[in-house]
Known about the structure:
Layout: E1 13-17, E2 21-28, E3 39-47, H1 49-59, E4 64-71, H2 75-85, E5 88-94, E6 100-106, E7 112-115, H3 124-142, E8 147-151, H4 162-172, E9 176-180, H5 183-190, E10 196-197, H6 201-208, H7 215-226
Parallel strand pairs: 1-4, 1-8, 2-6, 4-5, 8-9, 9-10
Antiparallel strand pairs: 2-3, 6-7
Helix pairs in contact: 3-4, 4-5
Amino acid sequence: MNALNPVVNAPRVVTVALNPALDQTIEVAGLQPGAVNRALRMQIDVGGKAINVASCLSDFGVPVAVAGQLGRDNAVLFEELFQRKKIANHCCYLDGLTRINTKLADTVSGETTDLNMPGTEFSPEAAADLLNQILERLERLAGQVDWIVLSGSLPPGMPVNAYATITERMQAAGASVLLDTSGAPLKAALASGPRMIKPNRHELAELLGRPLDSLASLVAAGRELLHGSP
Length: 230
């Protein structure tokens, strides 16, 4: 595992990409399920929440780095983005491909159908090894940066408490953690005390196990989280 590191200013933010993706968008004029469809065009973009956050921060002039994992076989597309946007690359490289998601964009109906792959599946041993290597890289950066951003889903086989582990270690090292995930990984990480979380209404309702259909219910939910529940 290695990392390609362009010469950039010392990062203020590190985003953590545990399950990055390439987004392949295929346009069709009138999608017909079950039939042969002729594509109008195809485009591949580097994606995944953590990569998108880093890209956006770079656009705003914030020195930023990415840590996480990339598949060697299609890593060049990520490397090109990092070089172009001066994003420091601290990713671990694994054999194989980074997952590829497919979007079918119907130019007639205006609807888009998303086909999202789960990502590389890890054995318990491989997941622990990867997490340890990422933590080592993050700990070298933690004392130099303002924020560690944990964003997106976990790949299959990664323990549900992975974000909790990273949060505890990074905040102990002096960095603030912003957590943007959902479901079990979000619930597991709350006890580790991230400085900030960013659930949307649906994710917050899922976390608390009840509908949040008014402003008052959202405010109450926020206060509940601030006071240590659920």
